[in-house]
Structure of GntR family transcriptional regulator:
Amino acid sequence: MRNPRKTKADLVYEALQAAILSGNLKEGEHLRQEEIAARWGVSQTPVREAFRRLESEGLVEHAPNRGVIVRGLPWTPPPAPLDVIRRRWEELVRDPESIPGSDFP
């Protein structure tokens, strides 16, 4: 089965979503419909549709008289696995008794 062709709204939505999730668009930044439409070479209709999708995900909000504003990530990304291992190792070195069922000296 072939993948359905992406619409212009899909492309704008995916680009904006990726920019927000990667941090390229910062919390509190204003998104101007006309600028985004010009940048992507689309009309304002696909941009409005992309804004609605992003708003439903909580990534942007429409503020009356201010336009669309980036809300940022609605969650904090988990720490990198090596950071977790490093912290746990430090805990174990400080308190070997924290290892259940271990005879660790």
Q: What stands out?
A: Strands lie at 30-31, 60-63, 67-70. The longest strand covers residues 60-63.
